[in-house]
Specification:
The protein contains 6 helices and 6 strands, in the order E-E-E-E-E-H-H-E-H-H-H-H. The protein has about 160 residues and is α+β, with helices and mostly antiparallel strands. The protein folds into 2 domains: about 35 residues; about 100 residues. The protein has a 3-stranded antiparallel beta sheet with strand order 1-2-3, with no helix packed on it. A 3-stranded mixed beta sheet has the order 5-4-6.
C-alpha cells in the first residue's frame, strides 16, 4: 500500500479488524519510511450486474439510485440514515445472491419492497405507489390491504 504522506510503497499492518458488520476490513498501517500511521478500508468488489429495464435497455446496477428511491420513500419518516444504508446493503446483497449478470428492474423493485415492508409501512406504500404507477385510490387500498397481510406483500 502506498503511504499517503511520503508516497512510498513500504508499510506494514499494525492491526486488522472487521468493519461495517463484516462487509469491510479496516487495517491500521505504519509507513516504514516516514513512520506515519494511516488506516485503510477494504471492501469486496462485486462483479457489476446490469439492470434490464422494461423497454429491454440495460444499464449498470446503481446503488445510489436504489438509495435515492428509498430515501424518497422514507422522507419525513423517523428513519436514521444508518438504517437506510444498512437496508441498501441488504437489498444489494439479496440482488447479488439471486442474480449473476442481469436482473430485471421489476425484480429490483420487488426486493426493495420486500425490505421496505419490514422497515416502515408508510415508506412501503410510497415506494409501491411510484413503482407500480398507482392511478387511483383503489390501487392504494389494494397495497394497504396487502401490507396488512404480510404473506401478500410478495404478490403485489
Amino acid at each position: 500500500m502506498r503511504c499517503p504522506y511520503c508516497h512510498l510503497d513500504n508499510d506494514r499492518v499494525l492491526d486488522t479488524r472487521a468493519a461495517d458488520e463484516g462487509y469491510m476490513v479496516r487495517r491500521k498501517r505504519v509507513c516504514s519510511s516516514c513512520n506515519r500511521k494511516f488506516a485503510t478500508l477494504e471492501k469486496i468488489e462485486q462483479l457489476l450486474l446490469r439492470i434490464v429495464k422494461r423497454d429491454e435497455t440495460r444499464e449498470p446496477l446503481d446503488r445510489e439510485k436504489i438509495r435515492r428511491g428509498i430515501e424518497r420513500a422514507c422522507s419525513k419518516r423517523s428513519i436514521e440514515s444508518a438504517v437506510i444504508e444498512r437496508l441498501v446493503q441488504d437489498i444489494e446483497a439479496d440482488i447479488y445472491r439471486e442474480f449473476e449478470s442481469e436482473v430485471p428492474a421489476k425484480e429490483v423493485g420487488r426486493i426493495v419492497m420486500k425490505h421496505l415492508s419490514k422497515l416502515d409501512q408508510v415508506a412501503y406504500i410510497r415506494f409501491a405507489s411510484v413503482y407500480h404507477e398507482f392511478h387511483d385510490a383503489q390501487d392504494f387500498i389494494q397495497a394497504i390491504s396487502a401490507i396488512m397481510e404480510p404473506e401478500r406483500v410478495e404478490s403485489l
